Hints:
With about 110 residues, the chain is an all-alpha fold. About 80% of the residues lie in helices and about 0% in strands. It has one domain. The chain contains two helices and no strands. Helix 1 (about 20-40) runs antiparallel to helix 2. This is DUF1640 domain-containing protein.
Amino acid sequence: MPDTQTAAPVASLPASLPPAERIRVLEDRCLTLETRLSSVDSNQSDLRTEMRHEIASLRSEIEALSKSMENSNRQINGKLDRLFGARAVVTAAITLLTSILGSGVVHMVVSIGK
């Protein structure tokens, strides 16, 4: 029979845990339940059914967290791409401006020196 810590509901996880850590904890719980399910006697069909339901629930929660993490990563990567693109444009503009000003100063020095 599973102990209360293993069979604790998913909602009991602290909200402060990062999604990757939550996924790891959920996978651990799922693996523990699957291991214990194999040792549950076939006469305890109610317990087996409940454990299978809990395993399915954990797998669903893991899948939802994984999708959420993927969406967040896509959004972050999009923002970083825009940031680096903007930074490249600014760097190119500064380089061009410096080049123009530098060649203008060189031209002026050469003109004055003659």
